[in-house]
Amino acid sequence: MAHIARLDIEAIQKRLPHRYPFLLIDRVLELNAQHAVALKNVTANEEFFVGHFPGKPIMPAVLIIEGMAQTAGLMHQESYPSSLGYLVGVDEARIRRQVVPGDQLRFEVELVRQKQKLCKAKAKATVGGELVAEALISLVAEDPAS
């Protein structure tokens, strides 16, 4: 198996252009060209909880999918280090449970197929070992200066 990297928030910010409130990864536990595991600590201070929903804060499902896509993007960068992985498809997405303040999301992605700069990854998000969401994420690696 290829090397496994761990990244803190500073290292993540060097690799991804996303910033608050759209950077949805706090730490990477495992990372190589075929597999990645990342964490997102969900706090009551997240901006999206103001309107989603007052009195019953629930993390928007699209942001859970975005967190899985960002994790897949970091994995894809292992094969294309000078590129960014741009999201081009989400298939078979399923949301299994709500995510609320205090939860810690664990994003896990596995490479399914790679054809040149296009990759497809199986992604899942869990909280405390319980499945929250899953999807097939498609990314294309492109030079961010283009």
Task: Considering the chains and any ligands shown, give keywords for the structure.
globular, single chain, alpha+beta, 2 helices, 146 residues, 6 strands, Thiol Ester Dehydrase, Chain A
> How do the strands of the widest beta sheet line up side by side?
1-2-4-5-6-3
What's the order of the H and E elements? HEEHEEEE
Count of helices?
2
What does the main sheet amount to?
6 strands, antiparallel
Using DSSP, what is the number of strands? 6
Estimated helix fraction:
10-25%
- How many domains would you count in the coordinates? 1
Query: Any idea of the CATH class?
Result: Alpha Beta
- From the 3D coordinates, which CATH architecture would you assign? Roll
Mean pLDDT metric: 95
Q: For the CA atoms, what is the radius of gyration?
A: 15 Å
| Low-confidence spans | none
Strand content: 35-45%
CATH topology: Thiol Ester Dehydrase, Chain A
Q: Structural class given helices, strands, pairing?
A: alpha+beta
Global geometry = globular
Distance between the termini: 33 Å
CATH superfamily (homologous) name = Hotdog Thioesterase
